[in-house]
Amino acid sequence: MTANDLARQLRERGARVTPARLRVLALLRGASRALSHREVEEALAGEVPVDRVTLYRVLDWLVEQGLAHKLADEMRVFRFSAASSADRPHGTHAHFVCDDCGKVFCLDDVQPEAPRLPEGFATTQVEYSVHGHCAACNPSEPHK
Description:
This protein is an alpha+beta fold. It has one domain (3-132): Orthogonal Bundle (Arc Repressor Mutant, subunit A). 29% of the residues lie in helices and 19% in strands. It has helices spanning 3-12, 19-30, 37-43, 52-64, and strands at 35-36, 68-72, 78-82, 93-98, 104-106, 127-132. The strands form two sheets. Strands 1-3-2 form a three-stranded antiparallel sheet. The protein has a three-stranded mixed sheet with strand order 5-4-6, with no helix packed on it. The radius of gyration is 16 Å and the shape is globular.
């Protein structure tokens, strides 16, 4: 996805296109797994760092706009991943959580169904997590 594509996504939500929003969205789109705030901060520390408060605001805004997912792991560390265009309504999205290293991976091919709710209830998000051992930690698989 090009910088112009990312900028278009931001503009479609009526937002200003800022360097911080573009850089964070590009990083999440290019990541192979969900990233913690610290991992995002470290990845962006290169040329022009994004200050911590701005980064929190950008990540939360991306989640509010449906451009990213936010998932709390068992240690209550929030991890962020880019939402795909294939995501279903109500934020339905699946993740794989490695019980050994704690990394979180998006499962784009898994599309869980939102449950039926009692009358008067409304779904805003469905979190679906599969736990196990990632390829790097799986004791039955040779490490690459």
